[in-house]
Amino acid sequence: MSPHDVTCAEFVELVTDYLEDALDEEQRTALEFHMTYCTPCVVYLDQYRSAITAAARLREEAGGVPDQVLRGLVEAFRAVDRDKPTDN
Amino acid sequence: MVASPVVQQVDAETAESDLLARLRAGDERAFSALVNRDHSSMVRLARTFVASQAVAEEVAQETWLAVIRGLPGFEGRSTLRTWTMSILVRTARNRAARERRSLPFSALAYAHDDDIDGGPTVNPSRFRPVGEPYAGFWAAPPHRWWSDPEPRALAAETGHIVQAALDALPPVQAQVVQLRDVEGWSAAEVCDALELTQANQRVLLHRGRAKLRAALEEHFEQGVQS
């Protein structure tokens, strides 16, 4: 059985399915074979993962809240009768 | 603003249950810290559903009011943030549906701008053309952006690039990428919240992430086509 290969142009369109584990056995083997000799595609996959990591970090970067909005919300929070939930 | 201790610990599980207890007890500082932590992400996500920044802000505020009302009944099966974000998605979707009914037909186009059947995510000119030896292999390969490990200083820099790229994505791509990669939701949770098939969710994720990568590449290799 000869390993199937993909081109680089095909590789870059399969990276998401690869990371999502949505490839069939044959496709996954082909991608993994391709990476054994194609450094640029390995670099591409690394960069793609870096983009995911960078997106995950956005979560830590709070942008702040306008004072007026915060005050209004805190007031609404204060107004809740904690014994019985209200409508508003 | 400087992150308070409440913000810094908030991800840890014990801090989470502590925070929940304080919120239920009516601790206003805990609530302020929570709003400070999550509000801007909520407005950004809401903005991908509705047609204006002002409406996105309203959706986020409406969500907070629902959170305040729902806190006594919240069972803590998911994190507060996940729960809040699911309320936001529901609120934003309802609001968008109402807007669409009351807006002229052209607004419908907004929802169909997600190039789910679009072309390649990497410029074809970067690969050797058909008819040449090694057709489909890299002609202009990507270069490493840094030698491992990633320099710490770059983290802040890439944050801006990625946020700008995320804000520029077509709406549903932006929703999928924000929920999957920023919020860390599973594929199943995203499909459920956005009513997408698994296959469509993957296509949108693929197209969105590829654009984030391309934006970073453009930043690191100014002048190289992406």
Keywords:
heterodimer, A: 88 residues, mainly alpha, 0% strand, elongated, B: 226 residues, 61% helix, globular
Characterise the protein shown here.
Chain A is 65% helix and 0% strand. Chain A is built from four helices and no strands. In chain A, helix 1 packs across helix 3. The longest helix of chain A has 19 residues, at 39-57. The longest helix of chain B has 23 residues, at 80-102. Chain B is built from nine helices and no strands. Chains A and B meet through helix 1, helix 3 and helix 4 of A and helix 3, helix 4, helix 6, helix 7 and helix 9 of B.
Shape assignment of chain B: globular
Helix content of chain B: 55-70%
Radius of gyration of chain B: 21 Å
Number of helices of chain B: 9
> Structural class, judged by helices and strands of chain A?
mainly alpha
> What is the number of E strands of chain B?
0
Q: Using CB atoms under 8 Å apart, which protein chain pair has the greatest interface?
A: A-B, 48 and 65 residues
Number of strands of chain A: 0
* Structural category of chain B: mainly alpha
Question: Uncertain runs of chain A with pLDDT below 50, 5 residues or more?
Answer: none
Fraction in helix of chain A: 55-70%
Question: H/E order of the elements of chain B?
Answer: HHHHHHHHH
Give the mean pLDDT of chain A: 88
Largest sheet of chain B: none
Approximate strand percentage of chain B = under 5%
Cα-to-Cα separation, first versus last residue of chain A: 68 Å
Enumerate how many helices of chain A there are, as a single number.
4
